[in-house]
Amino acid sequence: MRDAVAALEGVSGTVVPATGKLARFMRPPSSRAVLGRELGAFLAGRLPVNLQDQFASAAAFAEGEDPEQWARRTSGLFDLIDDPTRVLAALDQQDPREV
Fold first, then answer.
1. Can you spell out the DSSP letters for 43-84?
2. 29-86, pLDDT tens digit by residue?
3. Cβ atoms of 77 and 58 closer than 8 Å
4. Secondary structure (H, E, C), 82-95
């Protein structure tokens, strides 16, 4: 997580020109947003195939987002999927409540 935050903070927020047929209709992303999406895609690739798209969507780095906040949220989500035992054990300790 620290490495991801350092990498995201080290990248400038300069705009990367869009490419492709629809490039003129798209707002170009910053290099920080591009790196954030690449990091999210890398983590998604380590998950089961049926969860990769959903994780990549949930872990998407938004323009102007705080890199540390993004890294914590994404790391927590990844850990929850990769090893849910800690969270399930904490939930087992809670008293049932009516909703």
1. HHTTS-HHHHHHHHHHTPPPTT--HHHHHHHHHHHHHHHH-T
2. 677 777 888 888 888 999 999 999 999 988 888 877 888 888 889 988 998 888 899 8
3. yes
4. HCCHHHHHHHHCCC
* Token pair in block for residue 89: 């054990």
52: number of Cβ within 10 Å: 15
pLDDT band of residue 22 (cuts 50, 70, 90) is low
What distance in Å separates the CA atoms of residue 81 and residue 89, rounded to the nearest whole number? 14
Mention every residue, 6+ apart, whose C-beta is less than 8 A from residue 78. Answer: 43, 46, 47, 55, 59
